[in-house]
């Protein structure tokens, strides 16, 4: 399967992103990325009693139990941010069109964020997941680290048919591997067996977590193209359907809507912010849209 990045070298991809994505982000965000990264890279400073506007993720439950009153940890900003990318390369991430797969969006997003972070002296690491955790890249800084990470991304194999994805091992791997408080990007389409919500919530207690959800419009709405075979990207199971059937398309869209609602409820329960990126949306617009929403939430 061909992707726009598969024939490129890490150096060429980074040059393309520097020119077409990062320069535009610099202009639109005026170099101020605090709306994306605020709250990350912090060290513990003190404890104080909980106030109604405080973030519940900072409650120290041990002290709260001893004092019988909620206490929160206070942090001071650390100049250095350590960011980790938890990467889902299960079979469904290879869904999309010849122009853009979810995998392609994943690679461009990781390379862009890694470049933005490391050029200011921060460190980035990654955990790769296919049907299991396949690689852990220790957090380091510098352009060489970004190129090495890009090389690993490009060489990550495309999986064939596999058991249905379970994101729990990826999230548990993050809990085990990431010791210092960090910024954690969980990048996936979140098509997974249930049970991942609890480790995501635990990860969010220890770190600042952003869920980056990859999706393709054809997963939400079927085009009217007549009889076709549909194949489950995870299991390879095929189903013959007639997309001329309006009732079938309606049932498909209703099922997609219910999955969307359940997914959003899971993110809300875990207390994580979500950046949804479509295979058909400009990456710059996606990042700026998220930064704007994050800024508005912080002000309000």
What is the gist of this entry?
This protein has 9 helices and 10 strands. The protein is α/β, with parallel strands linked by helices and 300 residues long.
What this model shows, in words?
The chain is α/β, with parallel strands linked by helices. It has two domains: 10-37 and 80-214 and 267-299, von Willebrand factor, type A domain (Rossmann fold), CATH 3.40.50.410; 42-77, no CATH class. The chain is 41% helix and 23% strand. It has nine helices and ten strands. The protein has helices at residues 10-29, 34-37, 61-67, 102-118, 143-155, 168-177, 197-206, 246-270, 283-299; strands at residues 42-49, 71-77, 82-88, 123-129, 133-141, 183-188, 208-215, 227-231, 238-242, 273-278. The strands form three sheets. It has a six-stranded mixed sheet with strand order 5-4-3-6-7-10, with helices on both faces. A two-stranded antiparallel ribbon has the order 1-2. Strand 4 (123-129) and strand 5 (133-141) form a beta hairpin. Helix 1 packs across helix 9 (283-299). The longest helix has 25 residues, at 246-270. The termini are far apart.
